[in-house]
């Protein structure tokens, strides 16, 4: 199953091809799960991981909200999608920076996923901004 195809098949997308948005949605879904799992793994560590847990949980919640909003294409609420993508980029960058400070495999995996998600959300944001300029 492909979320990219699901978005492309939406009746109001009308053949509009924005694969970068589909990739951002996919990676936001994955990032939400990875961050949630990392927060749980951090809670089992012997050291104080409160900050990492908090940032992973925040990132998971932002990624979840982002993929949910960005996968809704009825009425093309591009401004809200742009806002959510920007928030996701910020949450992922903050979480990545924190996870990179820890020497745990789960934190390294989380940092890598946050980085991928941030890059994809930036690309989707660029494409959405280009759509606006093309409409004007």
From TrEMBL:
Domain of life: Bacteria
A Pfam family reported for this protein in Swiss-Prot or TrEMBL: Csp
InterPro entries xrefs: Csp_YhjQ (IPR005560), YHJQ-like (IPR044543)
Protein name from the UniProt record: Four-helix bundle copper-binding protein
